[in-house]
C-alpha cells in the first residue's frame, strides 16, 4: 500500500497520502502516550523512533541503489534538526500533559506553516483554503476539548507550543526540499537529526516490559510509513493545502484513543469530527488556485 501510494505525483494521490499519513500519525500519538505512561522517557521513545527510521532507510537504500540522493545538504540538515527538536518537544508534552492538550498545541503547526510559506516560498492560500483551515481547526478544538480545555503555561504546555513552531519550520523545509530531494532522502535526514537531538535525553534506566517495547517499536514503524507519505505528498501540494489535510491527525488520534485509551466521544466531539472532514473536503475541492491559461503542463506538480 505504501509503495503504491508513493508512486503517484498528482494532487489527488498526494491527498490520499496525507489522509493515510494522518491516520498513522494519530495512532503513533496514542502509542507514544502508552509508552510514556509505562516508563519510557520522551528521549527514549524518540531514540527508538529515530533508530527504527534510520535503519529502515538504510535498508531501503541498500535494496534500491540510487535512492539516497542528497542534493540540498544545508536544507536537509535544517529539516533534520528542526524535525528532531519538534518530535522531542511533542513527546515531552505527551509525557507531561493529557494527550488532548498536547495534540491540540502541537497541531497549531499547520497554521504557522501556512504563514511561513507565504513569506519564504511565496505560497498564498486562497480564500476558500483559508476558510477551510479555520473550519478544520475549530473542528479539532471541539474534538479534543469540547471548547473547555483549560491550558496552564507549564513545561508540558511550553513543550507543545515549541513543537508546533519547530514543526512548522520543518514542513516548510520539506516543501522547499521536494524540488530537489526525494522523500526517502529527506526522511533519513530527519531520522539522523532526530537521533542527534534525542540521544542526550535517553540516558538512565530503560523499561524492560515487552509490551512497552512493542509500543515503542510500533511508533518507529508508523513514523517511517507516515513520514514518507507526508513528505512525498509535499511534492504535489502547497503548504497551505497540506495544512488543511494535516488537521486530520488530531481527529485520528482522538478516534484511535477511544478503543486504546478507553476515551469516550462526546456530542461536541462528534460535531468536531464532522467539521474536520467537511473542512478538508471543502478545501480540497475549492481551495487550489486554477491557472489562468491552462496548458499541456496544467495539473501537474
Structure, described:
- The structure is a single chain.
- α4 packs across α9, α6 packs across α8 and α9 crosses α10.
- This protein has a domain of 190 residues.
- The chain starts with a helix and ends in a 15-residue tail after the last helix.
- It is mainly alpha-helical.
- The N terminus and C terminus are likely disordered.
- Helix content is 74%, strand content 0%.
- The chain is built from 13 helices and no strands.
Shape: globular
Helicity level = over 70%
- Please tell me the overall pLDDT: 81
Largest sheet: none
Any idea what the radius of gyration is?
18 Å
- Low-confidence region ranges: 1-8, 291-301
Order of helices and strands: HHHHHHHHHHHHH
Number of DSSP helices? 13
Q: What is the end-to-end distance?
A: 22 Å
Structural class: mainly alpha
Strand content: under 5%
How many extended strands? Answer: 0
Keywords summarizing the entry:
disordered C terminus; 301 residues; disordered N terminus; single chain
Structure in a nutshell:
The chain has 301 residues and is an all-alpha fold.
Task: Itemize the secondary structure elements and their pairings.
Layout: H1 2-6, H2 11-38, H3 42-63, H4 73-96, H5 99-106, H6 109-120, H7 127-145, H8 155-177, H9 183-198, H10 210-233, H11 239-246, H12 248-260, H13 267-286
Amino acid at each position: 500500500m505504501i509503495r503504491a501510494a508513493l508512486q503517484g505525483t498528482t494532487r489527488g494521490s498526494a491527498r490520499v497520502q496525507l489522509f493515510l499519513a494522518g491516520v498513522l500519525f494519530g495512532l503513533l500519538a496514542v502509542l507514544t502516550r502508552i509508552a510514556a505512561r509505562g516508563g519510557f522517557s520522551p528521549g527514549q521513545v524518540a531514540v527508538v523512533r529515530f533508530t527504527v527510521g534510520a535503519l529502515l532507510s538504510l535498508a531501503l537504500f541498500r535494496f534500491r541503489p540510487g535512492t539516497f540522493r542528497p542534493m540540498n545538504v544545508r536544507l536537509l540538515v535544517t529539516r533534520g534538526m528542526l524535525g528532531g527538536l519538534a518530535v522531542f518537544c511533542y513527546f515531552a508534552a505527551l509525557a507531561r500533559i493529557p494527550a488532548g492538550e498536547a495534540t491540540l498545541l502541537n497541531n497549531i503547526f499547520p497554521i504557522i506553516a501556512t504563514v511561513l510559506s507565504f513569506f519564504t516560498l511565496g505560497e498564498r492560500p486562497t480564500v476558500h483554503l483559508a476558510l477551510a483551515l479555520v473550519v478544520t481547526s475549530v473542528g479539532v478544538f471541539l474534538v479534543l476539548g469540547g471548547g473547555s480545555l483549560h491550558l496552564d503555561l507549564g513545561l508540558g504546555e511550553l513543550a507543545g507550543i515549541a513543537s508546533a513552531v519547530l514543526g512548522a519550520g520543518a514542513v516548510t523545509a520539506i516543501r522547499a526540499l521536494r524540488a530537489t530531494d526525494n522523500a526517502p532522502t529527506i526522511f533519513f535526514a530527519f531520522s539522523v537529526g532526530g537521533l542527534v537531538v534525542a540521544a542526550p535525553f535517553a540516558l538512565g534506566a530503560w523499561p524492560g516490559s515487552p509490551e512497552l517495547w512493542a509500543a515503542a517499536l510500533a511508533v518507529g514503524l508508523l513514523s517511517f510509513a507516515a513520514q514518507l507519505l507526508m513528505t512525498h505528498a509535499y511534492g504535489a501540494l502547497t503548504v497551505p493545502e497540506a495544512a488543511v489535510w494535516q488537521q486530520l491527525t488530531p481527529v485520528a488520534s482522538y478516534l484511535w484513543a477511544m478503543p486504546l485509551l478507553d476515551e469516550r466521544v462526546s456530542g461536541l466531539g462528534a460535531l468536531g469530527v464532522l467539521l474536520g472532514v467537511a473542512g478538508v473536503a471543502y478545501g480540497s475541492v475549492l481551495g487550489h488556485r486554477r491557472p489562468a491559461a491552462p496548458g499541456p503542463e496544467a495539473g501537474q506538480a
